[in-house]
Write a structure and sequence with these properties.
156 residues; alpha/beta; Rossmann fold; 2 domains; four-stranded mixed β-sheet; 5 helices
Length: 156
């Protein structure tokens, strides 16, 4: 979800994913993804629409949400819908920004003051609660740097 230009989808397909469904509300991003993933056309479906409202069929083994949660004032409807769409034993792979004394003020100025785009930060404890409240059973959170988390949440 929030597939953007299709960069992550390209990596997943190159690594052997049998099928990739990308959804984004931005038409320019879907067009970029379409161009980037053209060589995988038989294994790709791109959808222009709102993830919360768009009808999606089937269940997904892996749901990727990378670079999306930065911009969501209320992530709960998204994580609950992700849980509903995740196949049994499937998982969510997500990235979540954390407040960093070094990068935090710069991101705040760049996105909110200059770009008029609110951004949101997460804590390990908040992510654990969010994922449990959404129904995920096993949650693995890593902090590869000081400015964010990578999360793997499993559905039983």
């Amino acid at each position: 979800m929030g597939c953007g230009s299709g960069r992550i989808g390209e990596l997943a397909l190159e690594a052997g994913s049998s099928h990739y469904v990308g959804i984004d509300f931005s038409e320019p991003m879907i067009e970029l993804a379409r161009a980037r993933l053209q060589r995988f056309h038989d294994r790709t479906q791109l959808i222009l629409g709102d993830f919360l409202a768009c009808p999606l069929e089937g269940e997904f083994d892996v749901v990727l949400a990378l670079g999306l949660f930065d911009y969501l004032p209320d992530p709960r409807p998204f994580t609950k819908r992700i849980f509903e769409l995740t196949a049994p034993r499937g998982c969510l792979v997500g990235s979540f920004p954390a407040w960093s004394p070094l990068k935090g003020p710069i991101r705040k100025i760049r996105y909110e003051v200059i770009g008029d785009c609110p951004i949101f930060n997460y804590s390990r404890r908040g992510l654990e609660a969010l994922m449990r409240d959404s129904g995920f059973a096993r949650i693995d959170i890593r902090a590869p740097g000081k400015s964010g988390f990578l999360l793997l949440a499993h559905k039983r």
